[in-house]
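[step 3/7] inverse_fold.run input=structure_tokens len=107
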């Protein structure tokens, strides 16, 4: 004999699927921009022009070589690894920093 199930025990799967599908947000469609055209405008304070910076200090070749010599001497005394090229670059960096620092101190 076949047993009949009451209507309250039968699951209603199609109704649950429809409700779950209705809860999902739909994807938004984005408009494509034309290449080469910018729609955003820059604020008045922003510009693409480079800022005016202080002129690069002029450092003589002799000053750089003298500083590089002392850097190399110290490096060798301390037993650090390095070469003359890195000594030269360090000398240039130090002299630039000192040259840019001088006008601020007003000696």
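[step 3/7] decode complete -> sequence:
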């Amino acid at each position: 004999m076949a047993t009949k199930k009451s209507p309250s025990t039968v699951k209603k799967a199609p109704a649950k699927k429809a409700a779950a599908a209705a809860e999902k947000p739909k994807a938004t469609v984005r408009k494509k921009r034309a290449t080469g055209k910018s729609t955003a405008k820059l604020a008045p304070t922003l510009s693409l022009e480079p800022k005016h910076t202080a002129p690069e200090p002029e450092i003589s070749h002799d000053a750089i070589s003298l500083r590089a010599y002392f850097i190399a001497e110290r490096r060798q005394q301390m037993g650090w690894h390095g070469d003359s090229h890195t000594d030269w670059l360090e000398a240039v960096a130090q002299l630039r920093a000192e040259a840019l620092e001088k006008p601020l101190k007003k000696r």
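[step 4/7] annotate
The chain has three helices and no strands.
The two ends are 111 Å apart (CA to CA).
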